[in-house]
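> forwarded from #structure-qc
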């Protein structure tokens, strides 16, 4: 290969090079091509969604989506789907592959489509032309940066470019990490051969291999074939290692985890459980589930208010997100902490600027822990008074939006209004004041069925403006609606602290969190076959003192976690 052209003036990849990279990628896909066209699903069957809070039924069963019992003594799972790496999985995997201090920027890759707040839904993860261009551009950039960093290059390559056998050795080792299984000899030969054919120098050959591997469907998709040809079959050890790593760490398995899988450490349920317990104590779990909290509770991105008022700065949005991250992370990952205490916590974490926004006196710099006195409006309200959660994220009716959000986020009760109802009632509500609208929709037969579930909850937040800031001049009784939590042990509540306490006691809360975790980690809405796994996770959570990590290990401990079912 020619070594006369310096990297600084090396031209962009030619069509010949791009085609060669694409052909190498297709060779890698060929190893699993039969599964992709036949046994792996193209869409995510949601089936009937089990309502949360049903609990286990006698005889080891659980209530199914249709209301009948499900036999939990027989391991079952809903059909598998072909999952593209989400943006966060892609970033975290690349961070590990290239031994970076931080996840790489992926601004050119489109945002994952969300559903119910979550951006991990398999059925919505398409691959567009923009994705393909961005994947290649990212691979080119990472390859260029790696070759320019001698120390990191030595760690990642494991040998010196130009040394005999170095390129093939790198393709074997890096390829195994990228596609989560060993490459066959013919795959490595193809990669090396094409690299040597189109590369301009030794380092360029490594860049070519990187680009081919990182644009391979075997890297971009989480492919599971299973160990047998039956409709439902166990995952292979390496597939199980990949599912475990993506579930708990949101990234591809490390070389160590793949080696442990090949050594048989994951073969028995006890071994898998032991490895999972090690993994949930790792900081990589905290990183991945910090993103879960943001998607679950809808504070992943906040928008600046239209009329912010004096003292507002864009940095306040980041401070609000940090406040919720700190409280959730503290209750999720502090050893022995009760995760549900985040709902009734009597403290928070604010910067001086955010403290001033809330009307709190905060001294010092950075983030400070603040305890609330007993008579403070935020005393024992935990997450429910965080501006990141309750500030207006759209132009909807705040009372309805907040009540609807609380039921959906914490109880998994999605309130859907009949299509066209708002338009039908527009003329009837025209000219009414906001309190009159609230009263009318809670008394009219066409509206009361839905609004009676959400408005009495939302009105409890009426003294918090659209920015999430308390305004004591607002009187709740102006709305003519008593704050109530329908279905709670004590339905009427006089403060948000009372509401937080009732919400924490709700029997539906643990099951709902388990369902949200299932959706985030498995990339689909649960079907009836998944009900046993969700109920078992909620039960384990309660038995282990509501520790968040108990949720995660229970997901892995479920027999269904080891299975793959072919789509119908």
């Amino acid at each position: 290969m020619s070594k006369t052209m310096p990297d600084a003036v090396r031209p962009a990849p030619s069509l010949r090079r791009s085609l060669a990279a694409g052909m190498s990628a297709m060779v890698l896909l060929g190893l699993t091509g039969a599964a992709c066209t036949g046994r792996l699903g193209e869409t995510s069957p949601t089936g009937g969604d089990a309502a949360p809070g049903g609990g286990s039924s006698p005889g080891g069963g659980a209530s199914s989506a249709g209301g009948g019992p499900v036999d939990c003594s027989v391991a079952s799972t809903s059909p598998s789907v072909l999952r593209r790496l989400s943006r966060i999985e892609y970033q975290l995997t690349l961070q590990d592959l290239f031994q970076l201090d931080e996840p790489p920027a992926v601004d050119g890759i489109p945002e994952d489509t969300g559903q119910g707040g979550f951006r991990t839904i398999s059925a919505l993860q398409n691959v567009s032309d923009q994705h393909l261009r961005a994947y290649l551009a990212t691979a080119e950039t990472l390859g260029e940066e790696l070759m320019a960093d001698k120390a990191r290059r030595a760690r990642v390559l494991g040998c010196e470019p130009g040394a005999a056998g170095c390129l093939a050795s790198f393709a074997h080792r890096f390829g195994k990490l990228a596609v989560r299984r060993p490459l066959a000899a013919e795959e490595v030969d193809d990669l090396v051969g094409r690299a040597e054919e189109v590369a301009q120098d030794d380092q360029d050959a490594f860049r070519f291999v990187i680009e081919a591997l990182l644009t391979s469907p075997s890297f971009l998709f989480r492919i599971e074939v299973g160990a047998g040809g039956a409709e439902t079959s166990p995952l292979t050890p390496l597939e199980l290692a990949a599912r475990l790593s993506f579930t708990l760490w949101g990234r591809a398995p490390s070389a160590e985890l793949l080696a442990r899988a090949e050594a048989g450490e994951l073969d028995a349920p006890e071994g898998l459980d032991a490895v999972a317990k090690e993994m949930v104590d790792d900081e990589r779990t905290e990183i991945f589930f910090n993103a879960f909290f943001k998607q679950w509770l809808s504070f992943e991105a906040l928008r600046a208010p239209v009329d912010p008022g004096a003292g507002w700065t864009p940095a306040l949005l980041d401070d609000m997100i940090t406040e919720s991250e700190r409280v959730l992370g503290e209750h999720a990952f502090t050893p022995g902490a009760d995760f549900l205490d985040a709902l009734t916590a009597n403290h928070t974490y604010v910067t001086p600027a955010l403290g001033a926004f809330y009307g709190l006196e905060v001294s010092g710099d950075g983030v400070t822990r603040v305890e609330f006195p007993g008579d403070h409006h935020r005393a024992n309200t935990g997450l429910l008074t965080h501006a990141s959660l309750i500030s207006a994220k759209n132009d909807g009716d705040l009372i309805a939006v907040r009540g609807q959000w609380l039921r959906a986020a914490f109880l998994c009760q999605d309130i859907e209004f009949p299509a066209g109802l708002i338009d039908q009632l527009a003329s009837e509500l025209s000219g009414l004041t906001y309190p009159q609208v609230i009263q009318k929709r809670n008394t009219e037969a066409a509206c009361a069925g839905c609004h009676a579930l959400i408005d009495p909850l939302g009105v409890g937040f009426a003294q918090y403006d659209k920015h999430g800031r308390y305004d004591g001049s607002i009187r709740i009784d102006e709305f003519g609606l008593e704050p109530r939590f329908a279905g709670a042990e004590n339905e009427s509540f006089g403060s948000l602290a009372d509401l937080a306490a009732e919400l924490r006691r709700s029997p539906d809360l643990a099951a709902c969190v388990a369902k949200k975790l299932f959706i985030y980690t498995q990339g689909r809405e649960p079907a009836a076959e998944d009900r046993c796994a969700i109920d078992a996770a909620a039960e384990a959570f309660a038995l282990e003192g509501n520790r968040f990590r108990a949720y995660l290990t229970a997901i892995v401990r479920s027999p269904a976690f080891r299975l793959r079912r072919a789509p119908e």
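QC bot note: Residues 7-30+83-222 form one domain. Confidence is low (pLDDT under 50) at residues 1-16, 29-61, 63-67.
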